[in-house]
Amino acid sequence: MRDNIRAQMRARTAGDVEQAWSEVTALAEQEPNANVPGSYRDDENSWKDFGLTGPLKPSAVLVPLIERAAGITVLLTRRTENLSSHSGQISFPGGRVEQSDAAPVHTALRESEEEIGLEPARVEILGRLANYVVGTGYRITPVVGFVDAQQEFVRDEREVAEIFEVPLELVMEPDNYRREHMRIKNINRSYYVLPYGEYRIWGATASILLNLRDTLSG
């Protein structure tokens, strides 16, 4: 399974993992990756209605895969309730680019170390998924990697309320996803939801998982 994931990511990566932020942004402006389900670039003209016509703010997340005895899992976090945006929501470790970040992979690894104590040397980077645009004006570049199963995580208690793992088997099953709707700024938005036990994984996180499923399924 691990070798198959490596092969699929190599064959279908959305770009060179070491590609500089300037190149990633320039290419994204030419091709907004509207094929990613749920992205604001994929919902008719709602991205214009939300004022996303100007430059988008680049950010990156890590999609961490971990090989456990019971199977491969995807690591996720639950944000703390006191954050100014997306409080309490399920997300990947990651955040906005900083001046010192040469490429999306550097942003994803730096933020992961800050948020969950993940050592960059414990990550085998596999590739990138297509960009995803959110209504807050960010363009998310997801970076996929295998994380050493012996890594011990330490969460930043200011940002991360919980670290948990979802079986990749659940992520890979199309019937586990459902569409829901919400009216935002008088616009009817649809988004994906992936339920898992007590967790409600939705929005950008669910769509990125769906894109991971599509990438790995070939």
What does this structure look like?
The chain has helices spanning 2-12, 21-30, 46-49, 104-116, 168-171, 204-217, and strands at residues 57-68, 71-79, 90-91, 94-96, 123-128, 132-133, 138-147, 160-167, 178-184, 187-196, 199-202. By secondary structure, it is an alpha+beta fold. The chain has a single domain (2-169, 178-217), classed as Nucleoside Triphosphate Pyrophosphohydrolase (Alpha-Beta Complex), CATH 3.90.79.10. The protein is globular and about 45 Å long. Mean pLDDT is 86; it is low at 40-44.
Quick tags:
6 helices; 218 residues; 33% strand; Nucleoside Triphosphate Pyrophosphohydrolase; three-stranded antiparallel β-sheet; globular; alpha+beta; eight-stranded mixed β-sheet
